[in-house]
């Protein structure tokens, strides 16, 4: 009888031990980084034993939620200004902010024959609807407006713009055919050096301000080992390989 009891105690000990070292990190993730994070999350959990719970959305909306007490441990923003602002507002862990990716903008159509790798269709106005993310809330939307301004097309396309709340919705408008083309994040349509579908013009990065995407540990995550582990993992060779595979540049 003693032997099974010993084994039961050992099993209980292992359960309690694993529970003690495993923590959960709640992450607010910029919508453009959805696919990379979905690839990174299981690898992070396997490597660290921690659990990752991700919410995806527009950086501007996350800022409002965090300011109102939303229980996030880490923010992966689509810009560098929002984490810096939270830093100034003493809402982050000092010294935890870093650039995890530099984003690229692409004009994309779900139709494989629609775009020829240039801005010709855009300049010719050969479309009824052009999708962009909300430029007030989403950095990729702001970058799209900078490109249109640089091309002198802002007024010409104004009536044709279809605005998504975030970059995910902007992409959905194009993928579902509600817009013939749209400015989206390269990471949404690109993997391992090629387009997943459709046709595109990869916008030269000289046409918009650099989309530096910063991550930061928020005050709630100050004493959370899983938050620190995630920030460390995002800078590992394993994670950066995934990030680059989706068309991001690294600092």
Written account of the structure:
- 41% of the residues lie in helices and 22% in strands.
- The protein is α/β, with parallel strands linked by helices and 251 residues long.
- The chain is globular.
- It comes from Ectopseudomonas toyotomiensis.
- Belongs to the bacterial solute-binding protein ModA family.
Key traits:
251 residues; five-stranded mixed beta sheet; 10 helices
Unreliable runs, pLDDT <50, ≥5 residues?
Answer: 1-20
Strand line-up across the major sheet: 2-1-3-12-4
SSE order in H/E notation?
HEHEHEHEEHEHHEHEEEEEHH
**Percent helix range:** 40-55%
Q: How far from one another are the termini?
A: 62 Å
Structural class: alpha/beta
**Overall 3D geometry?**
globular
Indicate the radius of gyration in whole angstroms. Answer: 21 Å
State the helix count. 10
Give average pLDDT, whole number.
Answer: 91
Q: How many individual β-strands?
A: 12
Percent in strands: 15-25%
Main beta sheet strand tally, sense and closure: 5 strands, mixed
Protein name: Molybdate ABC transporter substrate-binding protein
Subunit structure: The complex is composed of two ATP-binding proteins (ModC), two transmembrane proteins (ModB) and a solute-binding protein (ModA).
Binding site for molybdate: 59, 167
Signal peptide: 1-22
């Amino acid at each position: 009888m003693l032997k099974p009891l010993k084994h039961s105690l050992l099993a209980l000990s292992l359960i309690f031990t694993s529970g003690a070292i495993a923590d959960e990190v709640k992450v607010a993730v910029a919508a453009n980084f959805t696919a990379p994070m979905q690839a990174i999350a299981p690898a992070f959990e396997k490597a660290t034993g921690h659990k990752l719970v991700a919410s995806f959305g527009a950086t501007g909306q996350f800022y409002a939620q965090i300011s109102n007490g939303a229980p996030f441990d880490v923010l992966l923003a689509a810009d560098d200004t929002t984490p810096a602002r939270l830093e100034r507002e003493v809402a982050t862990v000092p010294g935890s902010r870093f650039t995890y990716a530099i984003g690229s903008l692409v004009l994309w159509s779900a139709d494989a024959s629609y775009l020829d790798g240039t801005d010709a269709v855009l300049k010719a106005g050969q479309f009824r609807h052009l999708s962009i993310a909300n430029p007030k809330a989403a950095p990729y939307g702001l970058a799209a407006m900078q490109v249109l301004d640089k091309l002198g097309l802002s007024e010409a396309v104004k009536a044709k713009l279809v605005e998504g709340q975030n970059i995910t919705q902007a992409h959905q408008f194009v993928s579902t055919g509600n817009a013939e083309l749209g400015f989206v994040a390269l990471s949404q349509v690109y993997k391992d050096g090629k387009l997943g579908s459709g046709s595109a013009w990869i916008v030269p990065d000289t046409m918009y301000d650099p989309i530096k995407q910063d991550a930061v540990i928020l005050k709630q995550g100050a004493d959370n080992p899983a938050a620190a582990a995630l920030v460390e993992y995002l800078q590992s060779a394993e994670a950066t390989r995934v990030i680059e595979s989706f068309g991001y540049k690294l600092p």
